[in-house]
Design goal:
The protein has 98 residues and is mainly alpha-helical. It has a domain of 38 residues: Orthogonal Bundle (Histone, subunit A), CATH 1.10.20.60. Helix content is 39%, strand content 4%. The protein has 3 helices and 2 strands. It has a two-stranded antiparallel ribbon. β1 and β2 form a beta hairpin. The longest helix is centred in the N-terminal third of the chain and has 22 residues. The radius of gyration is 28 Å and the shape is flat.
Length: 98
């Protein structure tokens, strides 16, 4: 597939890229080559291959959720810039109704 300079400019515009004429001339064959490779991938006979999300069958790969000792509330809040009622104090971002 061969891209025209106008098609390259269009794709660049979609990506909000400003390209010079030299860049368009340089990128046109590169993008065309990428599209050719993508077309080859689409030609692979895969009708008999079931869809999968991973090449190997996996069960739950996460570790078990087990309680462990962690920081105390005082240690956690010691690094906070502001504390209010044993909580992190943050600026209000939503106005109260009324």
């Amino acid at each position: 597939m061969s891209l025209s300079p106008d098609e390259v400019r269009h794709v660049a515009g979609l990506a909000r890229l400003a390209l010079t004429d030299e860049e368009v001339a340089e990128l046109a064959p590169q993008l065309s080559s990428i599209l050719d490779y993508a077309e080859q991938v689409g030609e692979v006979a895969a009708e008999d291959v079931p869809a999968s999300t991973h090449p190997f069958p996996l069960a739950n790969v996460l570790r078990p959720d087990e309680p462990r000792p962690s920081l105390s509330r005082e240690d956690v809040l010691a690094g906070a810039p502001e504390v209010e009622q044993d909580r992190f104090a943050v600026p209000r971002i939503v106005a109260e109704e009324g």
